[in-house]
Each structure stands twice: as structure tokens, then as C-alpha cells.
Design brief:
The complex is a heterodimer of chains A (238) and B (610). Chain A is of the alpha+beta class. Chain A has 2 domains: 79 residues, Roll (Ubiquitin-like (UB roll)); 132 residues, 2-Layer Sandwich (Alpha-Beta Plaits). Helix content of chain A is 24%, strand content 14%. In chain A, a hairpin with a 2-residue loop joins strand 1 and strand 2. Chain A is globular. Chain B has 4 domains: 62 residues; 95 residues, Glutaredoxin; 218 residues, Rossmann fold; 76 residues, Ubiquitin-like (UB roll) (Roll), CATH 3.10.20. With 610 residues, chain B is of the alpha/beta class. In chain B, strand 10 and strand 11 form a beta hairpin. The interface between A and B is large, with 41 and 44 residues.
Chain lengths: 238, 610
């Protein structure tokens, strides 16, 4: 017998050990996420995948699917929370979409469109985050960092280089690189590393490749982030 | 001391040698064990006064960790410094009760006397002055930390003396000892503080009765955790015992002495006068769940207690109450080591505490799995509060039934309360559970009370019509804080202090807490500046809902409490700060010119906008 849970009233089958998010995605049901990737363990920090189970809000990425669970995801309440979270991320960093190389390929921007979070609701923090252009191949623009830690995890767990880390705390938390000088040029990152290609926003950019694909023809210009996510899910192995 | 270094990034040859010897010694003392990174960082900083870039690099190399990871850990803790700090580092406690007793004015006066600005290093590199979260001296404030050591009971005179000692560059070790004297302030004793249980009493009885007898007594007592959540202690130990351990005895007992909740200081008393009860409780836990390793996670603010605690541990080892074959029982091996925190409230959360014990950033883990199955280094771990462990000793010595007769059926035994604020007799009170707020107020000599903040910043604000409520898990729960505010106090200022606290202490892991606490702080600042409007109140309520619903751990979930309670019960204090317009921008043209006025030294009429 196949085990299943209910997502907004519709049954979703799952395999033992799958999270609510992963099972929903395999079943063609999109739950927004920023820090989660199918080939990494759940991180649970962005909170975009917040769902309601038994009256409690939980992260769908970190909640194991169980037979008979009733999961609420598409309610107004949750949509409102997700909009607020995306709005907060825009307020926290310095996000200037029109001049950003990642525009159209950026998950944060695409998610804002998906959730129809189109104008800022908060005073912007305007943090001072100088860019690091020291490396010949790779540019770091910390202004756009959303602290998903995908680069940290990829470098540590896949590349085996431990090039990125977060330091500081609270709103002063920030990304640093593995060099006493603090410069990316003094690390052993290379453009082929997973960490150099995993950023969902525009922090880690490859130099001399600006706007190779014109705005208007990019990933999320052609399809929404939800559609892309579900299409990708079909081709992934667990 | 490296504070004279003109260029932190390029130390001289002498400074490099000092750095290298400090890091080498710290590494050697801890056998280059990366789980001890936080302790290594603290000890390195003890020698160098801060953590220069070269020290981080050396430590990373010695531990086989990436430099970035070490920098990540060092940057997490408030008491670790990645930039040069003064030879004297003075931190005034930012506890609301002490703020109301004039701590801010004392800090301003202190800064004036020494010509230094808060938050900045003095130009001669001599000192830095700043604020820090509550240091557990709410009953004898205002208080401060100087180079990590506590000085309570600040007055104009004592501030003047401290300024004089610093001006004369007297080493802190040579300061008059009476400056550092901390009172116990025990105001009411009951079954725990008056128990008379001698070291070893409870252990001998437990060994005689066996593990089942000990667990039965705990179960009969219905002891629930005193750290706040109120989980049944016997059940936690049972789960931990049943969880599969990688090898025999590879379980851990952790005593949570990270008493960081603002307004709480009852563990300070237990650590000072009743440490045997606590250590014996840990040993009983080890006996019950078959653990060999124990940790006392002592908050950095209580560092002044460390030597005494080490001496108690040494005595217990000599007396056969710790170490190998405890009380002569074969294979009953258990010992405790003290780990220091370094200024991070969130490490009071048990999974963050475990991360910190493992030498990492104090970020709460995803739960489940819970520590009882996957805790310290993935082993089954029981994390218990200081008071819970002391009570377990009492129960093991005297049986569970006497204990269960005290208190209420769901909240048995007594509770230690840290009473501070507007009352005649602040201090530690031991009351049976079920005591009403009014009875505590009466006992501590409070009058004209407007509100009681129960359970600290993360707790609840009780107004007058709630003073008949009872302190108990099923009614008004508290981990120990009981802050009294009389009619003259501004409850908006109370909430603002707490919100500032949460923004400062957020670990920054999850989006809602990292950004939400900062936004909430800014909202209250806007109100305090007189620019609030009804729209801001709506905004605050929206942020509160999000924080409660989506935060990763209790810190973010609780961060909204003081404001939610405040808006519901003391709305007038908020409305008094409002303009009548629906919306008012935070930006103020005239205020924006303040910096220009400061730079030009002008403050005349034409330097202001009309």
C-alpha cells in the first residue's frame, strides 16, 4: 500500500524518509523554497517553505512526510507569511534588480514575482557590504547575499574546500572567505567548483560573462520559478 | 598586550611571536581537539586581549579546520573580539531593571570622566566602554563586567573609583576585592535551599537502591525541568537511557548553566553556594542513563565562579564522588568538565548549547532528532537546568513522595524565583509552586506595582488584574525571572529594552528572526522618537505574528511576546507616543542634520530647520 499525506486536501504519495517538500515536488506540487536543494540535506533557514500541520507552522523541507498528515500550504495566511519573508530579504540586503547580472535568473527575484511581492514594505537597511573583485575569474557581490549557505555547504561538503563561511550574528551576520587577507583571490576557489555555481542570487558571479543571455530571455522570463522547479524535479534522481 | 599595535593586519615580529606562543599553548592545552574550539579561542584571547587575524589562521591550521570556519565561530560570540579592544573592556549590563536604576546615566558619567565614547576604543587604546545583555546581577545592579569580571552595586562613588583605577592603569587583578563582592541575597528558603543534604548522601542512597529505585523516586516526585519547558525529568532520562549509544557509556550529561534570560540569577546562587547539589545531580543522571562524560556549560558572564567550581569538582574527585569507580562501584565512571560560554543568549537553547559545546557557532539545530537521541557529537545527551539537577539530588536523598506533596499536582516541589525591580527586598526566593504573584509581591516588599514581567524577556507581562494567578506550569510558568515594575515605570520602555535584547541576541540563522527582530527594534525606536503612527502599530502586530509563527527556535518565537503583551495590556503607553496621523515617515529632516551640526560644532537656530 502506498503511503500518502494530504497537501491542501489533495493526496501526495511519498517514500519512507522523504520530506513533505520533496514528496510534494515529486508529485508536481510546488512549495516555495530558497535554501533547499534536492541534493543537499535540509537546512531550514529561509523559512519560505513554511507550511501548517496540525495547527503548527513547520518547514516543509525539514519535516518528514508521514501517512495521513494534513498539510496546509496554499492558504492566504501562509502566502502572507511568505510574502513578508521575501520582502524582508529585499529590505535586508542591497538588491538593485535592474542593474544586476543575475536578473531573470535570480531565485529571490523570481520568487517575489511568483508571490506577487512587488513593492518594498519595510525601510531598507542599506548595509555596507563592499564587493570583492580580487579574483581573476570570480566576483563576489555580498550586497545580494540571503544567507542560504548553499555556497558554504557546497564548498565544504562537495568541493571539500571550505572556502565560504558565515561569521557575525543576527542582522550583522555576513559571508567571509577562507583567507587571512579576506580576499577571494587568496583562496583556492576555481570556476568549476560547485560553490562557484550554486548561488541562487547574484553574489557569486563569473567575470566576463555579463548579460550573455539578454534580459527577457532568461530562466524565469520564460517560465515561473514554480514551473521551473517542478520541471527540474522530474529529471532528478533521489 | 597587542593593543598598542598600530596596524592590526601587520603585526611586528614581537607581536607575531606573542600570537604564535598564545595559540600554540591553547592548542596544546586542548590537545588540538576541534570540538574545543570555543575554549581555545577564549584562552587565546585571554592572552592577547583580542583575536588577531594571524591567531585565527594559526588556530585553524593547528586544528585542521578551514580558517573561514574558525572565523565563523569567533565572530558569533559577543565576548570574542576580532578587532583590537582596550586594555580595559568595560561592559555595562543592559538589563531593564538596572536601566531604570540609572545604569545609562552611570555609563554616560563614566565615559565623561574617561573621555571615551560608548562603543568605541579610546584613542590611546586604553579602554572601550559598551553595553552587554543582562549579566545576572538584577538584584544588585547596576552592574558591569570589566575584562570579563563582574562588579555589581554600581554607584557614583564606585564608578569614580573604577575610572581612577583605569586612569592609573592599575591591573584589574590589583583592584580592591570589595569591588567584586557579589551578595547571595537569599530571601526565602524552602526544601531545596534548606535541605541539608551533604555531598554524597544522595549518591550513596541511589547506589544502594539501584537505578530502578532512583528512577522510581524521580517518577514519584513528578519533577519537571526548571529551564522553562517543564518536561518530566525521569522521562528525559529514560529516553536517553533507551537511545542507542555507539558504545557503552557514550552518552553525555550537560548541565545548562547558561542563565541568560534577562532578570534571572537564581542559578548564580546555586552555582555559588549549592554547587555540590548540582554536580551530584549530574552524577545521578550519569548513573541513571549510563553516561561517562559530563559538561557544565557556564555562561561567560559567570566566569568569576569558575575557580570555585573547579575546586568543588576537585574535592568531589578526592572524595570518590567523581572519576573512576564512583563510591567504589565498578564501571561507575563519570567526570565533569566546565565549558565557558562567551556572550550568546541563544546558547541557552539546548541544541545551540550542544553546537557550542562541539566548538561551533551556537545555531539551534533542526529538531527532531532531539538531544536525548542525537546530542553531543551525535550521542544520546540529557541537557538539564542547574535547578533541576539540584532538585534531583534532593529527591534521590529524600524520596519522591515528600517532594510531590509540595506545590500543585502538575507542578510539584518548589521554584526558585529571581526577584528584582521595584521592591524592598530583591533576591532569590524559594516558593512552593502554586504561590500567587500577589504573595510574592508581598514577600518582597513591593508596593504600587503596575506590572510583573514573569520569565524574563521571553516570558509574559502580567498586569494588576492578573496578580492572583499562580506560578505553575499550568498557570503562569517561569524559568525564574520575576521583575517588578511600579506605577511610575513606562511599560513601553520595558518592551523596547526587551526587543533590543532579542535583536542583539538573534543568531541570524532564520530569516524571520534575523530580520524581523531588527525591524521590530527599529519600529519601537521610531515610536520612541515620537514618529509613531497607527500604521506602525499594525506593522508591529504583523511582525509579531510572523516571528511567532515561522521562527526556527524559541528566541524568535518569544521576541514578539513583550510587545504583544504590551499592546494588549498597556496600550496607553504606546498610544502616548503616537502622532495622530495615520502614517508618519521615520525620516526627519532636522535630525538628519545632527551629524553636520556635530562636525561643525554648531547648535544655533540657523543650524536647524524650522
Amino acid at each position: 500500500m502506498n503511503a500518502s499525506f494530504l497537501l491542501d486536501g489533495q493526496p501526495v504519495p511519498f517514500e519512507e524518509g522523504q520530506s513533505v517538500l520533496a514528496a510534494a515536488r515529486k508529485a508536481g506540487r510546488y512549495i516555495p523554497h530558497l535554501c533547499w536543494r534536492h541534493d543537499f540535506p535540509a537546512h531550514g533557514s529561509c523559512k519560505l517553505c513554511v507550511v501548517k500541520i496540525g495547527g503548527r507552522m513547520v518547514s516543509a523541507c525539514a519535516t518528514p512526510a508521514q501517512d495521513g498528515l494534513q498539510v496546509e500550504s496554499a492558504s492566504l495566511e501562509l502566502l502572507d507569511h511568505r510574502r513578508e519573508l521575501v520582502g524582508m530579504l529585499f529590505a535586508e540586503g542591497n538588491h538593485f534588480c535592474p542593474s544586476c547580472e543575475k536578473s531573470g535568473n535570480c531565485e529571490l527575484q523570481a520568487l517575489a514575482y511568483e508571490l506577487e511581492s512587488l513593492s518594498p514594505r519595510h525601510n531598507l537597511f542599506f548595509p555596507d557590504r563592499p564587493v570583492d573583485a580580487s579574483h581573476p575569474e570570480i566576483l563576489l557581490d555580498f550586497n545580494r547575499c540571503i544567507f542560504c549557505e548553499l555556497c558554504v555547504r557546497a564548498s565544504r561538503d562537495v568541493d571539500g574546500k571550505d572556502i565560504f563561511s558565515l561569521t557575525g550574528r543576527g542582522i550583522a551576520k555576513h559571508l567571509v572567505v577562507n583567507a587571512e587577507s579576506g580576499r577571494l583571490a587568496d583562496t583556492d576557489i576555481s570556476p568549476g567548483d560547485l560553490a562557484a555555481n550554486i548561488c541562487p542570487v547574484g553574489v557569486i558571479l563569473h567575470k566576463r560573462r555579463g548579460f550573455a543571455v539578454p534580459i527577457g530571455e532568461r530562466l524565469y522570463d520564460e517560465a515561473t520559478i514554480g514551473e521551473r522547479d517542478l520541471a527540474a524535479a522530474g529529471g532528478e534522481s533521489e | 598586550m597587542l593593543t598598542d599595535s598600530p596596524d592590526a593586519a601587520h603585526p611586528s615580529a614581537d607581536q607575531s611571536r606573542a600570537i604564535d606562543s598564545a595559540t600554540a599553548e591553547a592548542l596544546a592545552r586542548h590537545r588540538s581537539d576541534s570540538t574545543r574550539l570555543l575554549q581555545i579561542l577564549i584562552e587565546t584571547q585571554d592572552r592577547l586581549s583580542w583575536l588577531p587575524p594571524r591567531a585565527i589562521t594559526q588556530l585553524a591550521a593547528g586544528l585542521g579546520l578551514s580558517r573561514a570556519r574558525v572565523e565563523g565561530v569567533a565572530g558569533f560570540y559577543s565576548f570574542l573580539h576580532m578587532r583590537p579592544v582596550g586594555r580595559y573592556r568595560v561592559l555595562f549590563a543592559d538589563n531593564i531593571v538596572e536601566e531604570m536604576q540609572g545604569s545609562r546615566a552611570l555609563m554616560r558619567e563614566f565615559c565623561r570622566q574617561l573621555w571615551v565614547e560608548p562603543g568605541k576604543l579610546s584613542e590611546d587604546g586604553l579602554l572601550s566602554v559598551d553595553v552587554t545583555s543582562c549579566i545576572g546581577m538584577g538584584d544588585q545592579g547596576p552592574s558591569l563586567l570589566v575584562n570579563g569580571t563582574t562588579i555589581p552595586a554600581l554607584t557614583q562613588e564606585r564608578i569614580g573609583l573604577i575610572a581612577e583605577l583605569i586612569r592609573n592603569r592599575t591591573p584589574v587583578g590589583d583592584w580592591p576585592p570589595e569591588l567584586f563582592h557579589v551578595e547571595d541575597n537569599v530571601r526565602r528558603r524552602d526544601m531545596l535551599l534548606d535541605s541539608g543534604v551533604a555531598p554524597g548522601d544522595a549518591l550513596r542512597r541511589a547506589v544502594a537502591q539501584g537505578r530502578d529505585g532512583l528512577m522510581a523516586a524521580l517518577k514519584d516526585s513528578n519533577l519537571r525541568g526548571r529551564g522553562g519547558a517543564g518536561f518530566a525529568t525521569w522521562r528525559k532520562w529514560e529516553f536517553c537511557r533507551q537511545a542507542a549509544a555507539p558504545e557503552t557509556g557514550a552518552r553525555a550529561i550537560v548541565c545548562n548553566a547558561d542563565e541568560g534570560e534577562p532578570g534571572t540569577f537564581k542559578d548564580r546562587l546555586l552555582l555559588t553556594r549549592y554547587a555540590d547539589l548540582m554536580f551530584e545531580g549530574m552524577t545521578l543522571a550519569a548513573f541513571a542513563i549510563d553516561a561517562k562524560q559530563g559538561f557544565l556549560y557556564l555562561r561567560g558572564e559567570y566566569r568569576y565562579l569558575r575557580d570555585r567550581l573547579e575546586a568543588t569538582l576537585a574535592r568531589r574527585r578526592r572524595d570518590g564522588l567523581l572519576g573512576r569507580s564512583i563510591l567504589g562501584v565498578e564501571a561507575f565512571d563519570f567526570d565533569v568538565e566546565i565549558h565557558l560560554g562567551a556572550g550568546a543568549y541563544v546558547c541557552g537553547e539546548e541544541t545551540a548549547l550542544i553546537e557550542s559545546l562541539e566548538g561551533k557557532r551556537g545555531t539551534p539545530r533542526i529538531r527532531p532528532p532531539f538531544p536525548v537521541t542525537h546530542g553531543y557529537l551525535g550521542r544520546p545527551t540529557s541537557v538539564n537546568n542547574v535547578e533541576t539537577l539540584a532538585l534531583a539530588t534532593l529527591i534521590a536523598a529524600r524520596g519522591g513522595e515528600t517532594f510531590a506533596q509540595c506545590g500543585t499536582p502538575q507542578s510539584t516541589g518548589t521554584k526558585l524565583l529571581s526577584v528584582s525591580g521595584d521592591c524592598a527586598r530583591p533576591g532569590v526566593y524559594e516558593f512552593p509552586f502554586g504561590v500567587t504573584i500577589a504573595e510574592v509581591l508581598d514577600a518582597c516588599g513591593a508596593s504600587n506595582t503596575q506590572a510583573v514581567q514573569l520569565g524574563g524577556a521571553a516570558g509574559i507581562t502580567l498586569a494588576q488584574d492578573e496578580f492572583s494567578r499562580r506560578i505553575a506550569f499550568e498557570d503562569a510558568p517561569t524559568a525564574g525571572a520575576f521583575m517588578v515594575f511600579d506605577q511610575t515605570r513606562d511599560m513601553f520602555a520595558v518592551a523596547r529594552n526587551f526587543v533590543r535584547f532579542f535583536a542583539h541576541e538573534s543568531c541570524g540563522f532564520c530569516t524571520p528572526c534575523r530580520i524581523g527582530t531588527a525591524l521590530l527594534r527599529d519600529c519601537l525606536d521610531k515610536l520612541a522618537d515620537g514618529h509613531g503612527s497607527p500604521l506602525d502599530l499594525a506593522e508591529i502586530e504583523r511582525l509579531d505574528r510572523l516571528l511567532q509563527a515561522t521562527s526556527h527556535c524559541g528566541l524568535g518565537q518569544a521576541a514578539a511576546n513583550p510587545v504583544l503583551d504590551g499592546l494588549r495590556k498597556f496600550r496607553k503607553a504606546y498610544e502616548a507616543r503616537m502622532l495622530h496621523a495615520d502614517f508618519q515617515p521615520a525620516f526627519n529632516l532636522d535630525a538628519a542634520l545632527a551629524r553636520a551640526r556635530q562636525m561643525t560644532g554648531r547648535d544655533d537656530a540657523s543650524a536647524h530647520l524650522p
